[in-house]
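User: Fold this, then the next.

Assistant: Folding the first:
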Amino acid sequence: MDIILASGSPYRRRLLERLQIDFRCIGPQLDESRRPGEAPAAMAARLALAKARAIATAHPGSLVIGSDQVAALDSEVMGKPGTHAAARAQLQASSGREVHFYTGLALAHADADFEKFHVEPFSVHFRELNDKSIENYLLREKPYDCAGSFKCEGLGIALFKRLEGNDPTSLEGLPLIALTDLLADAGIDVLSSPG
């Protein structure tokens, strides 16, 4: 079966490669703006499903994986910072606090009239961070394309005192445990072949 990851993210591509299945990537063009009053988990689900549907409509014979991650500090959504100054502000705001991540995951196959979705929550408890630590971290890792301004698979792990959740890969942007379950629902057992 042709499998498409509806993403241009190199992080998601590397994560999906861990399941050792054949797939290709096509990045959808969507407005990812938050709707008025939209809860972070609902936003993650909506965007993951919209990405999967957009690519599945254009490639009806393919099984499409969509994913989107929303980070929230209290009720404020934290997007990708884009700049050093914005990343510094995000980390200063997160210092000593808990940030919630919601990673939406969706599968869509237009020909088979198949759709499933899931939202994986994950929480990060930040250490108390001083300005020098934040600056050193940002200069070393430059996580300007990452929601929350860190890369947990790298030096960013040193920013935390505790992590809470069922699937650490969700924090990186693609919850592989939940994806394995959804793929099984679509008839794909990632462990059924020797590779």
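Now the next one, as you asked:
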Amino acid sequence: MDLIQMTRELGVAIQESDVYTGYRVAKDAADSDPRLQDLIGRFNLKKLDLSEAVQNDEKDRDRIAELNQTVRDIYNEIMSSPLMMACNTTREELDRTLQFMQQIIVYSANGQDPMTIEEDPGCAGGDCSGCSGCGGH
């Protein structure tokens, strides 16, 4: 039994899964939306402007506040886009699946029966504070 080959096959299975496909469809839709990409471009440019204003020896507090608000406004507009929300939701679902898969592998390597391992609720939301040690973060 070649573990590396089995891992490669697992990689293929991940890419063929519904959770991965859902993420790719959502990401591709977000990446190909001109309005959303324009917002992301504007956000990045304003972040650069803000960074330069903050690093300037002669700080213009009003300009910094204005740029900071503009960056926040654009960010909120990006994050409230249905395409970006779908991309983030499907990415979180994929991440949860991958974290659980990693949990199964780590627990199995520690001697537990892989068929009886249940998802650690501390890992389900990405919050490791209640985690019993999946090693994910």
